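Late entry, written up from scratch paper. The run itself happened at the end of the previous shift, but nothing got recorded in the book at the time, so transcribing now.
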Amino acid sequence: MPAISRICIVSDDLAGPPDEGVRKFTLAIAAALRRSHPVELLTTQPVAGDASIRAVPAPKTFLSRSLRNALRRIEPDVLIYATHRSATFFSFIRARVLRAYCPSAFVVLLGLQTRQHPRWQQVLIRAIRPDLVVVQSDTNRAYLESIGCRTAVVRSGVDAETFTPVDDAQRAVLRQRYGIPVDRPVAIHVGHLQAGRGIGVLARLAKTGACQVVLVASTSTSQEAAIRAELEAAGVMILSDYLPRVEEVYQLADCYVFPVETTDNAIEVPLSVLEALACDLPVVTTRFGGLPRMFGSHPHPGLIFVTTADELIAETVALCQQRVAGVRPLSLPYSWDAVAEGLVAEATALRDRVA
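Output as recorded:
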């Protein structure tokens, strides 16, 4: 079959600051794909301030003459549905609508979080499945394949030119800029200010007095007042405004903490973990999603997997007391260009195999 030439990515939510996992993944993969393919990026919700995104209003059902006409004018070889909701039942339905608009396109659904479905939905998904579902963990892959989907594992990426290490002098400058103590170790977490992410453990970490804990709260999702009050009462510093240079917060820290346990609350290869590693920031993380498979059980003294909150606190305190360097190389295989090339290769191979 001819090589893939035209790619269209359809999203149902690209509005607001790009500080949420699916949104960041979509924008980054679109930019990387554009370096080697003609790519159109469409969104069905209003968006302003980015000429690379074209808004084509459509309801949640995607039943829209405007969307249909826009896609038929593009005539994509590959149509990627970057759903904000991951692989829910209704995401499969919307992917089916997109196939109806572009019957000759190879349709890819991004399923960056594990979603479970009751039996009756599984039966219907088997009948309406897209050509490929992109996942980020072996668990999600096995589940979706068990209900009849073709899958490919595609990891997240990182911009290693933006997320870079700094020396001690620059680290001190950055701490002063953000009002963070210069004379204490700093442990950070970047993500949603929601209790479901397991961030309550940050309050326990702060109460040890071993480090200043900083939470950079996403502005793209609702922020829960109760967990905010709990964290601030324990001494956690919360940065809740959008930070266009979020790499600076990684650069000023001594340790990155990722306490999330359920895939309902993060994509399965968290961008923040890769960004921290690229800044040569040691990481303490749960055995979340695709991370253990990517890096192995004992990848480096500066990347530590834990199974309990007590372990997370103890390992973070230890890393803050003796900062471990040298983790940046762990992130370098995961450039966005490499991720984009992998996605196109998987789509091409499957398209040619089933043609």
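The mean pLDDT is 92.
(Scratch paper discarded after transcription.)
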